[in-house]
Specification:
Layout lengths: L1 E8 L2 E6 L3 E6 L12 E2 L8 E3 L2 H10 L5 H18 L6 H18 L9 H7 L1 H18 L6 H15 L3 H22 L8 H19 L7 H10 L1 H18 L7 H13 L2
Antiparallel strand pairs: 1-2, 1-4, 2-3, 3-5
Helix pairs in contact: 1-3, 2-3, 2-5, 3-6, 4-5, 4-6, 5-6, 7-8, 7-10, 8-11, 9-10, 10-11
Amino acid sequence: MLTVKKVLNNNVLVAEHPNYAEVILIGKGLGFGKKTGDHVADAQAEKFFVLKEEKEQEQYKQLLDYVDENFIGLMNDIIEIVEERFSVNLHEHIHIALTDHLFYAIKRVKQGLDVKNPFLPETELAYPKEFSVATELVDYLSNQLDLDIPPGEIGFVALHIHSALTRRSLKEVNRHTQLISELVSVTEEALKLKIDRKDVNYLRLVRHLHHAIERINKGQYFDNQDSLKNVLQAEYPLCYNLSWKLMKIMQQTLKKTIPEAEAVYLTLHLQRLSKQ
């Protein structure tokens, strides 16, 4: 059982927790009618979110200085949808990061400002499930607030969801998306073509790059592909050399060794694209 220490608003209160001492509880209508000393039902009886870490608590309290109380209730619904779709308990930081991001995004929409998202196609390809749920969330917010939220926002929300799911910082997740975009630009320049973003070979290349980055970060390297590498080097020298250029960019950005076998797979993807 939790005991109320302070009601911050209708949706947020500070409570005494038997294991974590002071915690912040977030739940729609959770603080309504509550006063210091009252008891709050446990998580089995009522759905709410607990912010346990002191740093997260302080950041969240700062949010409450400028975020509308009704918006806190909406964000509670949104994070609950994400947890249901992925069947997980998200890291508590998403309450701060996503609330802060969407509050300012909606403020910009109301001011008539449209922030472009240059990495939207790459984000959708890299994180399809997150992108799908982000689409659902942006539609939900648009309906609730009677606002036309631009589609670029879906990509930003998808990155926040992926960050919370993988417990990787948003900065790192963003860096990977930007890296893929850079690799595609270098490819277009080297092959002297404008790649159709709906072309199946482009989709395959981006998915491959995304999975390659994941594997490299986890140290899950490919098997040796020397025999095929020699054939491709002779048959497709332009694409083979380009694959090594892309690998060097990946190595510089990720600060990790890229296995030589990666040149084989990249060359095959690049060769398919070059036929355009």
